[in-house]
């Protein structure tokens, strides 16, 4: 497949995915406990009518939730695709590698020691939480790369095993710290750790948007380097690329995206694992096309998962992280069996 046909295929796939995401957004904003017609939503958005109930439902509840879902899905998917490139392991994922749990632990510690009360979070708290998550995720990533080396080279199998061990440890620590919170904050922290965008707000959007807008293009600009890093160690060394330096740069960008997503949505797992695999099936292996398509697939996954969680189980709501995990766990097992057969 030549470059022109690959670009046309990527554009076509991206258009279909974007249209599907918009359709899910439409269903999310019009359906719920308080159903709205498309005309009501349009009039509310364009300020052609001012009904307090409509304004509350659209602007305070549904739109922030939709925007957060789209941003978090795109961030985790792009980060997952990049992590699979720098580790040369198609099973790599922010959750499986423990970065997710480490960022979550750092934010739980921030909630407990610094913020004081989850409910009383203000603008300063919302803007600083992703930074704390970034520091925690960075520490976990450096620890992961150090322990997963064998004879000076990164061992993909050891990477998964170390990542699972670190993730389990950080997750247990997060649970222990959350148990020390007062009952109300513990309940909210538990829902958040499960991966939920139920309490999305415009404040959270303002906190995560700069990270997504700046870091996703920064990773995409390194698409060619990611293609090279996916080669074996000998080939990369022969090209003359400083693989360790490039991996560290991309890793820093990925941890920033993951931490921003965890700060506002908690532990939404498997998006970074599944979305890149779907993207490669759709547009091939070139990261120039894999990254944007992965972002759109991840966006669609979170939007669909959240829509299922809030409608299928109504009046109760199931966190989007649990909905995606129901799909993600069998898919992960399938990938493990497929790799063993090769």
Written description of the protein model:
- With 342 residues, the chain is mainly alpha-helical.
- It has helices spanning 3-30, 38-45, 52-87, 99-115, 123-147, 156-179, 183-193, 202-220, 223-229, 233-239, 243-265, 271-283, 287-311, 320-341, and strands at 149-150, 153-154.
- The protein has one domain: ABC transporter involved in vitamin B12 uptake, BtuC (Orthogonal Bundle).
- It has 14 helices and two strands; from the N terminus they run αααααββααααααααα.
- It has a two-stranded antiparallel ribbon with strand order 1-2.
- Helix 1 (3-30) runs parallel beside helix 13 and helix 8 runs antiparallel to helix 11 (243-265).
- The longest helix has 36 residues, at 52-87.
- 46% of the residues are buried.
């Amino acid at each position: 497949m030549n470059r022109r046909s690959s670009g046309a295929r990527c554009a076509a796939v991206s258009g279909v995915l974007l249209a599907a995401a918009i359709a899910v957004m439409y269903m999310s904003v019009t359906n719920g406990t308080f159903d709205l017609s498309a005309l009501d939503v349009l009039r509310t958005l364009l300020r052609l009518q001012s009904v307090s109930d409509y304004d509350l439902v659209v602007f305070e509840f549904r739109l922030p939730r939709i925007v957060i879902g789209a941003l978090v899905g795109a961030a985790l998917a792009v980060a997952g695709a990049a992590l699979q490139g720098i580790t040369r392991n198609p099973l790599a994922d922010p959750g499986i590698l423990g970065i997710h749990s480490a960022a979550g632990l750092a934010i739980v510690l921030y909630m407990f020691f610094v913020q004081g009360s989850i409910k009383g979070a203000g603008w300063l708290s919302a803007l600083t939480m992703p930074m704390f998550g970034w520091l925690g995720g960075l520490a976990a990533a450096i620890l992961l790369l150090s322990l997963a080396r064998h004879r000076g080279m990164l061992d993909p199998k050891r990477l998964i095993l170390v990542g699972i061990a670190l993730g389990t440890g950080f997750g247990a620590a997060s649970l222990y710290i959350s148990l020390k919170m007062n009952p109300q904050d513990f309940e909210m922290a538990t829902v958040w750790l499960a991966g939920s965008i139920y309490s999305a707000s415009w404040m959270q959007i303002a906190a995560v948007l700069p990270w997504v807008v700046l870091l996703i293009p920064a990773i995409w600009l390194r698409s060619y380097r990611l293609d090279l890093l996916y080669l074996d160690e000998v080939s990369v060394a022969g090209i003359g690329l400083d693989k360790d330096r490039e991996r560290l740069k991309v890793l820093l960008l990925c941890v920033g995206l993951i931490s921003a997503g965890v700060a506002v949505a908690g532990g939404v797992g498997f998006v970074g694992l599944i979305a890149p695999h779907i993207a490669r099936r759709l547009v091939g292996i070139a990261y120039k096309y894999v990254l944007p398509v992965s972002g759109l697939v991840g966006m669609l996954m979170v939007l669909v998962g959240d829509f299922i969680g809030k409608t299928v189980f109504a009046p109760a709501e199931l966190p989007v992280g649990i909905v995606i995990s129901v799909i993600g766990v069998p898919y992960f097992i399938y990938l493990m069996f497929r790799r063993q057969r090769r």
